[in-house]
Amino acid sequence: MDPFIQALQMLFGEDPELRQIIGVTLRMSMLSTLISSAVGIPLGVLIGSNDFRLKPWVQRIINTLMGLPPVVAGLIVFIILSRSGPLGQFKLLYSVTAMIIAQVLLITPIMTGLTTTIVSIRAPKIRETAYGIGIPRVRQMLYIIYESRSQLISTVLAGFGRAIAEVGAVQIVGGNIQHKTRVMTTAIMMQTNLGRFQFAIALGIVLLVISFSINIIINHFQTLEAA
Amino acid sequence: MPVCSRALSETAVPPVLGKENVMRKLFYLFCAGALVLSLAACAQPAAVTPEEPASAVEPVVTDAPAEVVIENPVIRLSTTTSVNDSGLLPYLQPVFEADTGYKLEVTSAGTGAAIEKARTGDADCLLVHSKSAEEEFINEGFEEVRVPFMTNYFVIVGPEDDPAGVKNAETAAEAFQAIADSGSKFITRGDASGTNNKEMAIWKSIDFDPAGNEWYINIGSGMGAALTAADEQLAYTLSDKATFLAHENSLSLLKEESADMLNTYSMIAVTTARYPDVNYEGSMAFIQWMTSQKALDLIDAFGLDQYGEQLFYSIR
């Protein structure tokens, strides 16, 4: 069957398993992006708008972590959460939680790094003004975030894109368990390994459409904000 | 004033020797070097493509009946992950290649995908262990022949404390019943592989459909992943013995050598009726060699040193 037609049927169809897979994918990606942003953006603002002695080293470490290979992150999380690992007693392996942990590990450095860059351009001016008026530190940070909101939204979208596209780490720590941790990417890999290429392509098209739609919606809000 | 400054800049350090310029040149040199290195790596002669007209090779043959002129030395063998993971092929391959002068290119996947490669023309020969899938393939009318050549048994592995009492079961069917009755966790590969097909056949034999039960965990992956999951979740699973022994885990072998866990391996050469370009001579040479006394002896001996037991039994 033509994969495009199959994809359309999938998108508008009622297949409960597919809907569940899409549900788990979105839930995992959104939560990962949310947590990574909540940690990464304030951290990035802190680093970007302040000067301190170890700053170049911190930036180097963050840049290196930005390039952390996803399978390595997956492996690290697997070893930690494994039954024979330090956090084994929580039995978190092969769960959506484990997948979110691995993704947060991957995406937070990216958010931090990108935010640092965005902020370091605007921050000095804002700090000058704020310092003069006497606005408290925390308020300053919030103001910086507000001023850079358009670019930060792009950063969050980039993080989300990373999360929804991740396959190696989530396969290792999630295990691609049917009805539980199977997401679009691991499903595509599985179908490819089974030789069901047409079906895999159709799933791929569905994933692209979902990702594309979310991007369009958020960009729309961005342009509204800018106007 | 402007004239002075212009003159000053003109008498500055000549561009070629300026520090910035040296750095820039070094950088370009580095980029060029990296590019050349990566191109060199890509240009490594890959496996000879089937269409390349190789010069006639006269191989040193010990087992084959007569001297053979090989037109296409590459045999694309599609096999299953359990065969590959067991280590049998890397063990046999060098001997085969030395004896016949052919080169074996082995790819592995679950049985379904492995057989699919033959259908799409991406394999010359199959080595799989799922009789029903094999017969379906053969019945597609391209006059292919199934050559069974070795067997082994699947095993049921699980947690050491064996909550379902699998050890006490006489057959695999009984063991599965015990697992279902006690609701103990069970990992299924769910990938239409030979192992998975055997598992489903056992469930069928006790007239029980495990799908939908919370203790039945479907991972849609290979044998290694299934064993890892079983180890982590303290669950039961069906495995081939070789992969189980080669895999690092703390599971216990609870049931083996039951008649309903017999696993037969066969080779199938893809015919030129299906794909004119396929290396049929190569596949037949492989099958001939694999069913020779020498190869069957090697198969029987495999695993004795490392694990103290025979992993595959040749069919003579």
Total domain count of chain B: 2
What name goes with the CATH superfamily of chain A? MetI-like
| Percentage of residues in DSSP E strands of chain A | under 5%
First-residue to last-residue Cα separation of chain B: 102 Å
If interface size is counted as residues with C-beta under 8 Å from the partner's C-beta, which chains form the largest one?
A-B, 16 and 23 residues
Going by CATH, the homologous superfamily of the largest domain in chain B would be Periplasmic binding protein-like II
Please give the largest β-sheet of chain B.
10 strands, mixed
Kindly name the structural category of chain A. mainly alpha
Fraction of residues in helix of chain A? over 70%
Main β-sheet of chain A, in a few words? none
CATH names the topology of chain A as MetI-like fold
Assembly level: heterodimer
| Secondary structure category of chain B | alpha/beta
Order of helices and strands of chain A: HHHHHHHHHH
Molecular structure report:
Chain A has 227 residues and is mainly α. Chain A has one domain (3-222): MetI-like fold. Helix content of chain A is 80%, strand content 0%. Chain A contains 10 helices and no strands. Chain A has helices at residues 3-12, 16-49, 55-66, 70-81, 96-133, 137-147, 149-165, 168-174, 184-193, 197-226. The model of chain A has no long low-confidence stretch (mean pLDDT 89). With 316 residues, chain B is α/β, with parallel strands linked by helices. In chain B, strands 1, 2, 3, 4, 5, 6, 7, 8, 9 and 10 form a 10-stranded mixed beta sheet that branches. The chains are: A mainly alpha (227), B alpha/beta (316). At the A-B interface, α9 of A face α5 and α9 of B.
